[in-house]
Every structure is written in C-alpha cells, then in structure tokens.
Amino acid sequence: MPHAAIATLSERDARRIARHAPAADAARFLHPAQQALLHRRGWLTMLAPRSAGGTELPLPQVVRLEEAVAAVDGSMGWVLTLCAGAGWFAGFLEPELAQAIIGTPRVCLGGSGAATGFAEEEGDGYRITGSWDYASGAPMATHFTLNARLQRDGQPLLDAQGQPRIRAFLVPAALVQLVPSWNSLGMRASASHSYRIDAEWLAKEHGFTIDATTATADGPLYRYPFYSLAYVTLAANVAGMAGHFMQLAEECMRHRRHARAGLPLLEVPEVAAMLQGKKDTCAAARARFYAVLDDSWATVAGGAVLDDNTMQAVQAASLALVAAARSAVDGAYPYCGLYAAREDSSINRVWRDFHTASQHALLLP
User: Fold this and answer.
1) Are 205 and 167 a contacting pair, CB within 8 Å?
2) Domains (ranges, CATH) in the chain?
C-alpha cells in the first residue's frame, strides 16, 4: 500500500534534509537518506490520482510543500517538484496502466518536455528513438516521460495546421539509457542527466495527451492547466531558494563590518534599508502569488474552467515572484563577503542552486 503523503514539512524532516545536503552536492545526487524520505512521505506520488494509488493532494498544499523543501535544499526541492509533477501525468493514462505504474515499488517518474525524439507507428504501438535532456532525478527514476514526433513509414504525421504531431509517452526505465551529462554549477544533486531510447517498441497505451478533456482521473488537479501548474511549482522552488539565501546572507552581514563606516553591516542604515526593502518586496510578491494560486485553485475545484485572464494572472504572479527573488539574491550577494564565494559554504551552494534553477526557460522575464 502506498504511504499517504504528508503535505507539510516537519522540523525533523527539514533537519534531516539539511544535514545531508552538502554530501549530496558533493556526490552530485540526492543522499540515500533524502531519497528514502521522498518515498517514505509519499511526496513523489502526491500529484498522482488516488484511483491509481497516489494521494492527489490539493495543488496549493503541494506548492507550499515544494517551496518549503526547496528552502532547505534546492536540489531536493527541484527533484521533488519535477518528479512529482511527472506523476501528475498518471491522471491522463488508462486507469489500469496508471495503477500499475504508480504501484511500482519506490516509483519515481522523471523526464523531459522537449520533443527531441520520434515515435514510428508500428502495429499496436510505437517504436521510439531519440534523446532528451535535463531529466531531474534521473538515477532514481523507474519511468521516464517524453514528447516525440509521430511518424508513419518514416514520414512525419502532420496536424490540421501542417505542423508535426507530437505525443507524450511514459516509458519504463528498462527501455531507457542514461547519458551522464549534468555538469552544472549548481543544482548538482538534482542529477538532471540526459537519456536516450534506441528503437524500443512501446504499446500505444503508454501514450497520452495532456488536456483536461482527455483526463482519465476525475479530480480538479487534472483540470488545472498544465502550464499554470508548471509556473506555480517552478516559481515556488525559486522563492524557497531565495528565502534560504536571504537568511544566510543576513547572517553573513551580521558578522561583517563596513570598511568605511567601521560598523557591522546591519548597523549601516543604507544596508539595513536595502535588506529590509528586498525582504518586503519578496514578501509582497509571495503574498500575491499565493492569493492568485489559491483563487485559481478554488475556481477549478468548484468545477469551473480557468479563463485566459486567470491563466495570465497565474503566470504574471509567478514571474513577479521570480523577479523579486532574483533582485533580492543579486542585491544582497555583494554584502556577504568572500565567505559566500567559497564553494564549500552553505550560502555559496544556495547561490549556485538559485542561479541554476532560475535559468529554466519558463522563468524568463
């Protein structure tokens, strides 16, 4: 039986995550204790349908948990977010297949959204070939999601607008070859490696379409728009890392003196005002973000469909939160001293993680 997901981060779990974060960064993958916690708390299936064995938590709870985990360790928050997000796709699979996948021991879904492969129609399925990048949590994945361009007899299949038809697939890890490629400055423990598939056949049931009209699970999670879900979960991660950085930055400032004023930095009025201003701006953006998220979720949970204006508001609130986080981190960093430039310091790891995660294409201003 799957564990019921715990929707809050306890102090004990936060300490456990933090204790192993430096070792995970050095090893370039989550520490076994961190991986075990993800499974034990049921977090990797918290967006999967209850009918498939997931816990299908309300989206606002999920987002707050992801922010809290990212505020302790950016890599773990990112793996949690991307892998739990891939578990959401189970709500668009045939129910029996979804149950089989979510019921896999220590199930973890990873993958990529880029359509960098091909799916050739063959019998009652597809033969898939291609390579995909940035599969966060790849070493622990039991299944991979991907997008592929459909073909028949080697020719691309086109939609009504003459564009290549693209279909999403969920593939067992046994058909996938990992390609170690994640050599980033930060988010090292996310192990967001590449993967490839060489002409492997897959039954058609493993293909799916991400659209509320094609959902096979009934809950409001599967009627919440995909891109809106992506924006809020990614933005929450960035906000969590920024909050962690600002805590560590304030501690650095507490122990550093201003060369000209001869005072501790936090006693220099201009520095104190700068720090408080960054905090206030982030707090306001965060409050707005959660107000928009909670309202949008209430709309969908009430049975309505998000209109274009609401989806735009979700995106705008997410990007505003990311912009505030960027401004805070970049504004505070110069006051932190050379300690913040040491690769073995906690604040440096958080800084590296923040600036790597915030490069995600959806988070461009």
Assistant:
1) no
2) 11-100 (1.10.540.10), 108-212 (2.40.110.10), 224-363 (1.20.140.10)
Q: Which of 117, 98, 54, 66 is nearest to 239 (CA)?
A: 66
CB–CB of 217/51 below 8 Å? yes
- Which secondary structure element, helix H or strand E, spans residue 148, and what is its range? strand 143-152
Q: How far is CA 220 from CA 48, 54, 80, 301, in A?
A: 12, 14, 21, 5
62 vs 318: CA distance, rounded Å: 15
DSSP 8-state symbol, 237? H
In contact, 252 and 335? CB cutoff 8 Å: yes
Percent of the chain with pLDDT over 90: 95
Q: Which two tokens stand for residue 194?
A: 């590449």
Query: CB–CB of 5/46 below 8 Å?
Result: yes
* Separation CA 107–CA 45 (nearest Å): 8
Q: What is the mean pLDDT of residues 164-187?
A: 97
Residue-wise pLDDT tens digits, 244-302: 999 999 999 998 988 887 888 999 999 999 999 999 999 999 999 999 999 999 999 99
Q: What is the pTM of this model?
A: 0.96
Interatomic CA distance for residues 322 and 10, integer angstroms: 25
Residues ≥6 apart with Cβ < 8 Å to 250: 266, 275
For residue 134, give the DSSP letter: E
Element housing 346 (H / E):
helix 346-357
Cβ count within 10 A of residue 202 = 20
Residue 312's contacts (CB-CB under 8 Å, 6 or more residues apart) are: none
Structure tokens at 129: 């070939």
Maximal CA-CA distance, the chain: 77
The first and second tokens of residue 239, run together, are 């906000």
Whether the per-residue pLDDT at 5 is higher than 90: the answer is no
Whether residue 25 is predicted with pLDDT greater than 50 in this model: the reply is yes
Relative to beta strand 143-152, strand 109-111 is parallel
pLDDT at 257: 87
